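Hi R.,

Here's the chain you asked about this morning:
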Amino acid sequence: MAKGPDVNKPMPFTGVCTKLKEFISQCKLHFRLKGDWFPDEATQIYFALSYIQGRTAGP
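And the predicted structure, written out as C-alpha cells:
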C-alpha cells in the first residue's frame, strides 16, 4: 500500500449540523489523497463512521 501524501485526519463529528459539511469535506480529501486505502465505498463508510462520536451514527 502506497504511503501517499500526508493529510490531517478528520475532526470527530459530534452531530453538530453546522460542522457536517466540513466533516464530509475532510473525509473526501482523505479518500482522494489516500485512494489506495479506500478501494470501495464500504471502506470509506467504515472510515467515516470511525470518526463519529456519541449517538450520532445510531438510534
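The radius of gyration is 12 Å.

Let me know if you need anything else.
M.
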